[in-house]
Amino acid sequence: MLSNETFDSDAVFSRLPGEVRSWVSSLQWNERRYVLSLCHVLCAAPPNVQAEFLDEYTADGLVFRLLDDYDTQRKVERHLQFFRIETTLTEQLLRKYIRQFYIHCAQDLHRQPDQYLQIAVKLMSSSEESNNAFNYTLGFELLKMMFRMSWMQQERLYRLQKNQEEFMRMYIKPIQNAHRINGIIVPRDKNKFFARRDYYIQIPEIPTRKLVELVMATFPAKQVTDFGFSVIRHTNALQFNYSYIYAIDAEDILGSSDS
User: Fold this and answer.
1) How far is CA 36 from CA 33, 40, 114, 125, 160, in A?
2) Which of 102, 113, 215, 231, by CA, is between 20 and 30 Å from 44?
3) What pLDDT digit, counting tens, does each position of 41-94 carry?
């Protein structure tokens, strides 16, 4: 974002791609008024309205670009299959995630107030940047999967990871905290065997809309995107063994995931 010291016409134009500078300079007076009106209305709009506008204005082109990137699409689909996530990368799903990505970024404005429109422009600027939509989609689907796990299943997933402390801090503890705060899983009488067994193996029942809201409230958009990117780029970024994690094993009832 430009500082007050550098905010002049030369600085603005210097940050635009060459073809954009040429196009802007070639506009007639009436056309320049239209551009300025759009800039004024967009900048004055609340973040959620900006997100809605950008979705309507850019989503079709972004979805086309994503579907055209067959290699990355296949990578994401293979990961979804590996993690037993029953989600298909349809045009409708990708459009939904692009819109959600804009909204999620808007909600993070209090953390990164100068990044929102920049992210939207970057998504449109190149295939490499638009791949963040794929990264975000995979990261979000994985976090939804983890939110749906019992605490026993989460502990088993945690045990599989190479860097267990970091994984616990970045993912498991925030998810379990969200479970507690929202009354989804409430630990009671931890020292009593049957009470502990009840909450430790309880499978969270979370409606789809509520699940999306919880993931967005618990993790910033950048963390979701980085998570998906790491899994796509590094095969072993998230260790996973479906049979082990979801097995019914009485020996794990006295696990230690409530720390």
Assistant:
1) 5, 6, 20, 21, 54
2) 215
3) 888 887 667 767 777 777 777 777 887 888 889 999 999 999 999 999 998 898
Residue 127: how many other CB atoms lie within 10 Å: 11
Mean pLDDT of the chain: 83
CA angle 242, 154, 86 (to 5 degrees): 45
